[in-house]
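hiii, so i know i said id send this last week but things got crazy w the move. better late than never?? heres the sequnce for the chain we talked about at the cafe, plus the structure i predicted for it. fair warning i was half asleep when i ran it
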Amino acid sequence: MDHAEHHEEHPMIGYGTYISVWLALLILTSLTVAIAGFDLGQYTTAVAMLVAVVKTTLVGLYFMHLRYEPKVFHYMILVTFLIMVVIVIFTFIDDYRFSYLNHEVQAEVHH
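okay and structure toks below
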């Protein structure tokens, strides 16, 4: 049995697609830098994370060729991403609690 018999042929991705994805990544990186200059309040981190997720998805799908891999890879990446989201949420919850408690202690000290 030949090695090629075990794998499906992936479609050829043209240079135009790679250039389009690269340009999208440049635009998204510029957007990230521009967002850093604005005060979006509590949404700053969320917007930056959203742009980062879009950029990561583009890199994974096109430059790492995950778009043409079997569905099991998609599920593994999805589970890993969801675990990371849970960890980030718990981190923000802990940071918020610590910040809130720190403000309470400072308020008690000043009274």
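btw Residues 1-69 form one domain. thought thatd interest u
miss u guys!!
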